[in-house]
Design goal:
alpha/beta; binds 4'-phosphopantetheine; 6 helices
């Protein structure tokens, strides 16, 4: 089926993202995860290099099926540069779905590349990088881990 491209800001990468990565590897066999900039989210927590490194650490169990790269510019240009057959995205809520539908149709009009929207397992569906950052920045305790352990450790280091 060819390589698929999963773009995102991943600030930080969490268990919902990992769920999508594992599903996409099962479907496509090979996945490039693109660490990108979301113009709607100007201020972040981790640098692009840090985000890419945390994703690599979180996906070691998937071996060569996953490759993590940083990209600037448009998702369609990044997808074309790696000859991706599909773009992979996820939607958690109805609001997400509407945004993803509009981006998928824009990206298809621009490049001809189709987007596959995947849904995480229900136990991961509510997880949001924005809220993980807010909890970390305010020192909020989390009874249930929402991100891989390397990300939890990196969040604790950013706070201290
Ligand atoms: O994880 P996010 O923040 O939801 O990822 C959004 C991202 C980075 C995939 C999106 O903002 C994006 O595609 N950015 C690159 C710029 C682009 O291609 N814009 C046109 C979208 S139709």
């Amino acid at each position: 089926m060819g390589v698929a491209f999963y773009p995102g800001s991943f600030d930080p990468f969490h268990l919902g993202h990992l769920d999508i990565v594992e599903q996409a590897v099962g479907m496509f066999g090979e996945l490039v995860i693109g660490v990108m900039h979301n113009p709607a989210k100007p201020s972040g927590m981790f640098t692009a290099d840090e985000r890419a490194d945390l994703i690599r650490q979180s996906t070691t169990h998937l071996g060569k099926a996953v490759c993590v790269e940083k990209f600037s510019g448009l998702t369609v240009d990044a997808a074309a540069s790696i000859k991706a057959s599909f773009i992979v995205k996820s939607a958690r809520t109805g609001a997400d779905f509407e945004i993803e539908q509009q981006m998928a149709q824009t990206n298809r009009a621009a490049s001809g590349i189709n987007t596959v929207v995947l849904f995480s397992s229900p136990e991961h569906q509510f997880i949001s990088s924005t809220y993980i950052r807010q909890f970390a920045q305010q020192g909020g305790a989390m009874r249930t881990p929402l991100a891989p352990s390397c990300v939890i450790e990196a969040l604790a280091k950013k706070k201290s």
